[in-house]
Amino acid sequence: MSFRATVLTLYPEMFPGPLGLSLAGTALKNGLWELDTVQIRDFATDKHKSVDDTPAGGGAGMVLRCDILAAALDAVADTRPMLAMTPRGAPLSQARARDLASGAGAIILCGRFEGFDERIFEARPVEPVSIGDYVLSGGELAAMVLLDTCVRLLPGVMGAASSGEEESFETGLLEYPHYTRPVDWEGRTIPEVLRSGDHAKIAAWRHEMALRDTRLRRPDLTLRHGGASQAPPSGAQRDNEGKMK
Ligand code: SAH
Q: Which among 53, 153, 166, 187 is least buried, having the fewest CB atoms inside 10 angstroms?
């Protein structure tokens, strides 16, 4: 059974969009995952096909109606987790993506305007998911981000060699920096160690660089990694202290 995504949106024509190209697109064509969309407006009940109404309590914008959202969700509900894209959700993580990728897929609700009537989260098992601390104009791009991160983890999507296990966040750290030819570019050379052919030394250097960049750029991750800024946990890193510059 392949990973199946059902996206509930007011803009189904946005899909597959970028998910129809490159890695995710090839996987879609090869049947490694499936994507279908549902037009939320099809579940409107009045003659104007309205899906939203003004916010209770006043204020700007419009709110997606819970009765319409529930009808759309109920029409596609099965055993897959139901997610709603919202900046008020728990931040998407690599761990959550791995977890989703190991399952049957997801039903994903995309918001517009001011977002969803809150009662949808009480009345249906919908998990609010955010892709970061900023506000988009709609949930479609967020759903694509979520799907892209899941799809590349599906068996057979990435080459066997790149299982992604060393990538950023998989180890609680950012990944080490990469280099490729030309060896000399504008007077800058690829670090000597990467050309040494010494795999242990290369692994140690990469770990050191991952720690350095995580400390510099993402001190929040370093803390979560168990205070690596004070006490680097790796024996390999200590063994090579001072030699890896
Ligand atoms: N009024 C809301 C924002 C609405 S933005 C608030 O302040 O929380 C409109 C829609 O875009 C949302 O319903 C959601 O589906 C999507 N969206 C915006 N930012 C997002 C984010 N960071 N993560 C996931 N979805 C987001």
A: 187
Note the pLDDT tens digit of each residue in 137-169.
Answer: 999 999 999 999 999 999 999 976 556 778 899
CB-ligand 1 contact for 114 (6 Å cutoff)? yes
From the CB of 88, is ligand 1 less than 6 Å away?
Answer: yes
Could you say which residues of the chain have pLDDT below 70? Answer: 160-163, 225-245
Q: Is 145 in the pocket of ligand 1 (CB under 6 A)?
A: no
* DSSP strand pairing (82-91 vs 105-110): parallel
Residue with CA nearest ligand 1 atom 2:
114
Length of the chain: 245
Task: Please indicate whether residue 115, judged by its CB atom, sits closer than 6 Å to ligand 1.
Answer: yes
Rounded to 5°, the CA angle 55-59-64 comes to 30
For the stretch 99-138, pLDDT in tens is 999 999 999 999 999 999 999 999 999 999 999 999 999 9
Q: Which fold has domain 165-238?
A: Trp Operon Repressor; Chain A (1.10.1270)
Whether 91 lines ligand 1, by a CB cut-off of 6 Å, is no
Closest CA to 139 of 150, 125, 152, 128: 128
